[in-house]
Amino acid sequence: MCGKQEFVTNPRIRLLSFLAIIIASVMAVADMGFHIVSWSLWGDTTRQAVIQAYSDLMPALTEKGFKQSLLSQVLYISLDTIPRVISTASYVLIGILFFRFAKGEIWSDRNISGSFIIGFLMILEQFLYPVINTLQGMALSVDLGKGQRVFSFSLGVNSESLFIVMFGVFLLIFSLIMRESKKISDEQRYFI
């Protein structure tokens, strides 16, 4: 009896879990899908928007005759993809977690680990943005001549990012509380 998983069959949990699965699925597809479409179908427009955004720091990017190298493009797009991969992985894990909830699996070790991983990914994504912005600026300045290259380092997060970080911390703490609760529950089963 101690090793068996307890399943909960609350219909409200099932209904809300299915709603969360739908939302997580739509967000995962939209997040990664829009990223892929913007770089593959609208690559020139997206590239011009990026160059225009950095033109205040690096005016040489918008000069006539400037051609961005393949290395610079690949580096920039690769760096731009990292947050999308992290957020898409988070959405997929959220969908899996709520799928398990819908099946009635609540206090399992894999749900506890899943909650912890989702919280960690949420925090990681928000703190990676300043680093990625710095590296993207460096990737764009690869093609510029000496004296025109710029190193711009940003540090800090906005209030929306702080909210996401706090929610990630909440998930980390909640998963630790779930783990402790499961240990106590398992210990009590041994004595009954």
TrEMBL record:
Keywords: Membrane, Transmembrane, Transmembrane helix
Organism: Photorhabdus temperata J3
Membrane-crossing segments per the record: 15-37, 81-102, 114-132, 161-178
Name assigned to this protein: DUF2975 domain-containing protein
